[in-house]
Structures are given as structure tokens and as C-alpha cells.
């Protein structure tokens, strides 16, 4: 995640307590760990709330969302609700902060969740979409829109999800997708990382035009 001043924040999961955590890399500098995270887990998704200057981090193994200030320090568990847990592989995964709520996916359960904030704490959890087994990271289709574009890693697809939770396939393996893990939107285009981590062949970045509304 890159901030306006060029500072890059990223997660590192080594399986070792001395290095697993949230890192900051300033332009021209060297990486610095600003918050330690459990080495027994898998820190996966990272989102930033500009209003509170807080990072939110998903752990797909532990089934938690943690919060940490952008100045660094101790990471505290913000939510460990059962909706975040895995069913055997990976649970809570992608994450975004939008309009006073935290949105996340659960890969095993195939759900898109919206968690409202109440005085900075996790409050009500709403299932916005289901039946999306293998859903990984996601983004919003545009400014002010609650429509979502999601990478469905296990099905080699990218899906559009409307406000009613209805999913429409936008891209498939026929478009070159191999285990898509993340998606970003810029203007009228979507950028999809096609990781190919199961095939090990031709990982790439796919650029696709978004359908007009």
C-alpha cells in the first residue's frame, strides 16, 4: 500500500516472531517493521482508514482483523468474529475501509462481509454476498459505488458483485486468468494479478476494460 508521499506499507509473513509484521518503506530508505504480528498466523490483507490513521490487517489463518496506528506500535485484535474464521484452509482475506465500515472477504466460506464501526470498534456484521468460494482480494467498482469487483482465485474468475449480492462473471481462464489474487480499478480499467501459483506457468498482470454502466 503506497501513500501520497510515496511511503510504502506492506506485510511480511516469515513464520518467525522476529520478522513477521507490518513494515514501512520511505522513499530512498530501508524497510522498518513498525508493528509485530503473530508468527503463527498469516497476515494477508491490508487497508488504511485515513480518518483515524489506522491500519487494519487480516490474518487468514487466525481468522482475525487487527488494528495498528500508522505511527506503529502494538497491533490489537479488532475483531475475531466467527464469520472471519476458516473452515480448514484460509478464512478472512481481502480488506477495504469505506464510509465508516470495514469490508472483508472469507475465502473458505465464499462471503463478502461488511462490518460497521461504532466508536472505532467492530459492530454489526452483514453478509453482502455469498456462494463465492475461493474469493480472494477485491476492490470497489468506482468512487461512491458499493459494487465490488473480486478475484475468485480457486475458480480462475473475476466477478462483479452488485449491492444486492448478485455476482456476474467478468473474466475467466479464457481471458488468461490463472489463480487471480488481487484486483485494482483505475479509470475505466481493471488490473488483475494472475498469480498462477498452482500451475507455476506464466504469472502475469491482466488489464481489462470495465463494462459501461
Please outline the major beta sheet: 4 strands, antiparallel
Globular, elongated, flat, extended or rod-shaped: what is the shape? Answer: globular
What is the residue-averaged pLDDT? 94
Measure the end-to-end span.
28 Å
Number of strands: 18
Order of strands, main sheet, comes to 4-5-6-7
* Radius of gyration from the alpha-carbon trace, in angstroms: 17 Å
Low-confidence parts: none
Helix content: under 10%
Structural classification? mainly beta
Q: What count of helical segments does DSSP give? A: 0
Strand content: over 45%
Q: What's the helix-strand series?
A: EEEEEEEEEEEEEEEEEE
Quick recap of the structure?
Helix content is 0%, strand content 51%. The protein has 213 residues and is an all-beta fold.
Could you characterize what this model shows?
- With 213 residues, the chain is an all-beta fold.
- It has no helices and 18 strands.
- The strands form five sheets. Strands 4-5-6-7 form a four-stranded antiparallel β-sheet, with no helix packed on it. Strands 8-9-10-11 form a four-stranded antiparallel β-sheet, with no helix packed on it. A four-stranded antiparallel β-sheet has the order 12-13-14-15, with no helix packed on it.
- A hairpin with a 4-residue loop joins strand 9 and strand 10.
- It is globular, with a radius of gyration of 17 Å.
Amino acid at each position: 500500500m503506497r501513500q501520497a508521499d510515496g511511503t510504502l506499507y506492506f506485510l511480511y509473513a516469515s513464520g518467525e516472531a522476529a520478522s513477521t509484521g507490518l513494515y514501512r518503506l520511505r522513499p530512498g530508505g530501508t524497510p522498518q517493521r513498525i508493528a509485530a504480528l503473530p508468527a503463527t498466523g498469516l497476515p494477508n490483507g491490508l487497508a488504511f482508514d485515513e480518518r483515524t490513521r489506522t491500519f487494519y490487517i487480516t490474518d487468514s489463518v487466525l481468522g482475525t482483523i487487527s488494528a495498528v496506528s500508522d505511527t506503529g506500535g502494538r497491533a490489537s485484535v479488532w475483531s475475531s468474529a466467527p464469520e472471519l474464521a476458516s473452515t480448514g484452509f484460509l478464512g478472512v482475506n481481502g480488506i477495504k475501509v469505506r464510509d465508516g465500515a470495514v469490508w472483508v472477504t472469507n475465502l473458505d466460506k465464499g462471503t463478502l462481509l461488511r462490518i460497521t464501526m461504532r466508536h472505532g470498534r467492530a459492530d454489526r456484521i452483514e453478509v453482502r454476498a455469498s456462494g463465492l468460494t475461493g474469493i480472494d482480494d477485491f476492490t470497489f467498482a468506482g468512487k461512491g459505488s458499493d459494487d465490488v469487483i473480486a478475484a475468485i482465485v480457486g475458480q480462475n474468475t473475476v466477478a462483479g458483485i452488485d449491492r444486492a449480492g448478485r455476482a456476474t462473471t467478468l473474466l475467466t481462464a479464457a481471458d488468461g486468468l490463472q489463480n487471480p489474487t488481487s484486483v485494482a480499478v483505475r479509470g475505466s480499467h481493471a488490473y488483475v494479478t494472475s498469480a498462477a501459483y498452482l500451475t507455476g506457468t506464466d504469472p502475469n498482470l491482466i488489464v481489462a476494460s470495465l463494462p459501461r454502466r
